[in-house]
Specification:
Layout (H helix, E strand, L loop, with lengths): L1 H16 L7 H24 L3 H5 L9 H20 L31 H21 L12 H23 L22 E4 L2 E5 L15 E5 L2 E4 L5 H9 L11 H9 L8 E4 L2 E6 L2 E4 L11 H10 L7 H9 E2 L4 E2 L46 E3 L28 E4 L16 E3 L8 E2 L3 E3 L7
């Protein structure tokens, strides 16, 4: 029996690290089931960590009550996997409108006739039973929505994205700590250069081959960038404190006009959750009040704050193509990788992902995750602001619905890349695109800086 369990564990680990395109149909179903199960375990952990009163409370106008997120996860799973893919009858058609994210702003959701905690848990369990029945029987070819189990991957990513949103709600929650995790590794690369040279030229951006890639990541296309330098690691808290202590939040010359107006209107004086004490800077992190760790990447900063820091440092934020070239381009082969370290799925040695830790790891903590050019921690730890807005790639086509990406194109959004410590490996890759309003600070956002390469300058 022990040998059987060990063999099953090894098979599961192999499936988790093997690219989807290389899996057999049987292993693809198993991989989809494992991904769905991992997401649900996380959703349950995040909602079971608090009592029912906390579940239904709105901890911030920026966020939904946790119980709304959980029911919304079930509603989307029912719509796509049970009804559409499976062709099954609706379980709860009466709640479709309540849990449609486009119908109700987050601030208004507490006033809706939401399912209660126990009814919500019962609903998502019933949906999951039906989902696994569909997964067992539906053909994984012949229809674009089910090819390579795409719909199951899409729903997995949706749940994991809401899990990260719920984790951000926990950060906004007041009270004693209810989430716990071990500390991430410390710096294992103590002599890293401050910046890395990225050669100019064309590279393949986006993907046409990644089975579970979403529509805004497609299609693969050739993109040219000029030579530039990029910070080896994300900007650390220690470096950011230098900006603070130099009066960076009091100097409009470092800020865009719009950023300065927002900073002054809302009296923003430091990253969110930070406060100055007699002995330095402190922060609140999931209910723990602690000294700001100098070696960790700064987190909970808006695009405006990141842009101001970069100007103060004599640098700028990278564009989205620059970020992706630094993350994917292999100068030895001339090809773009799936991840900075190669094509295999992330492991705990590569990146700080999946809520394994409840904080960013120190700069230099993941040498195995470095890109061929020598850029570190491009995946995990903190989402990284870029200077680019959200637009579709050349040849973009909405799939499977316009509201996933297309309706956001050209809006007031800035692209973030790379994922955070709260992002699951199923919901991030080197082509994955996140976006948010430039004022957002409750998200797990940080940044790194870039600069143009001067004529004749080499690494």
């Amino acid at each position: 029996m022990t040998q059987t369990r060990n063999a099953q564990t090894r098979n599961a680990q192999t499936r988790e690290t093997t690219p989807l395109s290389e899996l057999s149909p049987q292993d693809l179903r198993a991989r989809a089931a494992e991904a769905l199960t991992r997401a649900r375990a996380r959703s349950e952990a995040l909602t079971d960590a608090v009592d029912d009163e906390d579940l239904v409370r709105q901890h911030s106008k920026l966020m939904s009550p946790l119980v709304w997120d959980l029911a919304h996860i079930g509603s989307q799973e029912e719509l796509w996997l049970v009804r559409d893919v499976g062709g099954r009858a609706a379980l709860r058609a009466d709640i479709d409108e309540i849990y449609d994210a486009f119908q109700h702003a987050r601030a208004d959701r507490p006033g809706l006739p939401l399912l209660g905690p126990e009814e919500t848990r019962k609903y998502v369990r019933e949906v999951r039973v039906k989902t696994f029945e569909v997964l067992e029987k539906v053909p994984l070819e012949g229809r674009r929505l089910t090819e390579d189990a795409f719909a199951f991957g899409m729903v997995t990513q949706h749940e994991q994205q809401h899990d990260e949103t719920m984790l951000a709600t926990h950060q906004l929650r007041r009270g004693e700590p209810v989430l716990h995790a071990p500390a991430p590794p410390g710096n294992r690369s103590p002599r890293l250069p401050a910046e890395v040279f990225v050669p100019g030229g064309a590279f393949t951006m986006g993907t046409s081959a990644e089975p579970w890639a979403l529509d805004n990541e497609r299609p693969a296309h050739e993109t040219f960038v000029d030579a530039f330098f990029l910070d080896t690691t994300p900007v650390t808290c220690g470096a950011y404190v230098e900006f603070l202590d130099s009066g960076g939040y009091d100097e409009p010359r470092w800020w865009s006009e719009r950023g300065w107006a927002y900073r002054t209107e809302h009296d923003i004086t430091a990253p969110r959750f930070w406060e100055r004490a007699a002995n330095g800077w402190w922060r609140t992190r999931f209910g723990v009040f602690e000294k700001v760790p100098a070696a960790e990447p700064v987190v909970h900063v808006s695009f405006h704050e990141a842009e101001a820091y970069a100007a103060w440092a004599g640098r700028r934020l990278p564009t989205e193509p620059e970020w992706e070239k630094a993350a994917r381009f292999d100068p030895a082969s001339g090809r773009s990788r799936r991840f900075p370290w190669g094509d295999e799925e992330p492991t705990p040695e590569h990146a700080n992902l999946g809520q394994r830790h409840l904080r960013p790891a120190e700069a230099g903590a993941y040498p195995a995750g470095a890109s061929p050019l020598g850029v570190h921690q491009l995946i995990g730890d903190v989402w990284e602001w870029t200077s680019s807005g959200l637009e579709g790639y050349p040849g973009f086509s909405s799939f499977p619905y316009r509201e996933y990406s297309e309706v956001f194109f050209g809006g007031d959004y800035k692209i973030l890349r790379g994922g955070s410590f709260g992002t699951d490996s199923a919901a991030v890759r080197a082509t994955f695109r996140n976006w948010d309003h430039p004022i957002r600070r409750q998200i797990f956002s940080g940044f790194r800086c870039a600069r143009d390469a001067r004529p004749g300058e080499v690494s």
